[in-house]
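Sequence in, structure out.
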Amino acid sequence: MPNAQKVEKVAALKERIEAAEALLLAEYRGLSVHDATELRRSLSENARFAIVKNTLFERAAADAGVAELQTLVEGPTAVAFVQEDVVATAKKVVDAAKKFPALVIKGGYLDGKVLSAAEAQALATLESREVMLSRVAGMMKAEMSRAASMFQALQGRFLGVLEAYREKMPGAEATEAEPADEAVAAEAEPADEAGEATEEPTGEATEEPAAAADASASESQTEQAAEVKSEEG
């Protein structure tokens, strides 16, 4: 194979390694073309399954900074370049290995760590992304309901404390007493007006007899003076 083609294949493998969320490596010795095609189709939703040449894959892994993968590249190698949902892909690969005994999982690569065959198979026992998201959503909903209930309880308790504090304030008693004082004042005003109306006629009646008495005294004095003058004459 010309060197230029090898360089292109190494570059393409390097891009796949770097773009993948995880890698699952398996030996496919004795796997028929039909079985390999069926496996490739079953993984197409979350991963790209490809048979690679060991020397090219080792060089691409080294270029991608994961030279540790060289320990897994022995014998015929097929790689599942996982793009989404590592757990779901691992489940499908494990199920395929049970269905096709010729397919043997060698290991994998996830989050910067090389996985052994046992660790790669253990991924299939984990919960899928859908289940995990569903559980997280349920937990968030429960926490939100709990937070809302706590907030309502705190709000009710705060309002109760505020009402008790308001009743104990001196201003509250004065405010309640003001309407009573105003009612007393309103009841007193008509009595005062009636008193004034009663006193006015009494005053006028008292002044009239006094004036009549003064006039009578004046007339008596005038008569006495007239008598004196008559006697002198």
